[in-house]
Amino acid sequence: MNLLNILDKLSDDQFFTKMTSRSEGISSIANFGKKAALASIPLGLGSFMATSAKAETTAAPSFAPASALTDALQLALTLEYLEDEYYREGLNKAGLIPAGDKVVFQQISKHETAHVAFLKATLTSLGTTPGTKPMFDFTVGGAFDPFNNYMQFMILAQAFEDTGVRAYKGQAGNVASNKGVLQAALQIHSVEARHASQVRRMRANKGWIELKDGGNMPAATDAVYAGEENITQAGFNTSTLFGAAAGSASFDEILSGTDAAAIAGLFIA
User: 38, 240, 244, 250: which one has the fewest Cβ atoms less than 10 Å from its Cβ?
Assistant: First the structure.
């Protein structure tokens, strides 16, 4: 399954007003090179994910209980809700985002909307009700003012994207029991990593994280970068080749589900 093609369809404002048959939707997924429209989410993509889940149950050992799989997807959905809402509000605030940067955030916003739609459909197909979108407070009780201060908007955008990248990696083991979900999660993860790198570059930072500094980030975002100073991978000291900075940057660290949820919780009213 080529998730990027699916995300492009889900990003299209016209998509949700068009319906095709269930068989056409499944055919479109199976033949991802075609540009045919996908079926409605519950009957098309959802059916594919449900079939994938059934196949994994009968053909492969489970590496994590079903609850771990759906809990990982619910966590991902919360993070995607957060990003989707953040960019939507930022783009709707007149005069906040400079014209030269706006096209970047418009595209990122479409991606996040697509991620939300995909995760909701996947959870539904697995027999789990997707969590509802929380009420967000992006000021964190007045500590930030991202929709009136573009620099703060960029700082939080970087923090959210870096959190998403680390969180998806941290949940890989919990979704490994379903190959379809694992593949999709990895495809979303790489898109989030591209978002993170782009936003970091727009802030004149390196496109990757070195040690614990997070790239000129305020202390309030320390939790996002905790552990990134690690230079040991599977017992190998990566700093012996190029030094601590390069050794740390060569391997991006994970965020546990608990830590990722705690970071997201700071912005939930």
Answer: 240
Q: Do 117 and 247 fall into the same domain?
A: no
| Orientation angle between helical segments 3-11 and 179-202, nearest 10 degrees | 70
What is d(CA 258, CA 87) in angstroms, rounded to the nearest whole number?
24
The encoded tokens of residue 197 equal: 């790198």
Alpha carbon distances (Å) from 168 to 20, 38, 190:
32, 26, 9
CB 54 within 8 A of CB 146: no
* Chain segment 235-257, per-residue pLDDT in tens: 999 999 889 889 888 998 999 99
Give the pLDDT confidence of 186-233 residue by residue, as tens digits. 999 999 999 999 999 999 998 998 876 666 888 889 999 999 999 999
**Do 161 and 242 reside in the same domain of the chain?**
no
What CATH number is associated with residue 129?
1.20.1260.10
Domain count, the chain: 2
Same-domain check for residues 261 and 164: yes
Q: Would you say 140 and 264 are in contact if contact means Cβ atoms under 8 Å apart?
A: no
| pLDDT above 70: residue 28 | no
> Could you tell me the two tokens for 87?
């960019």
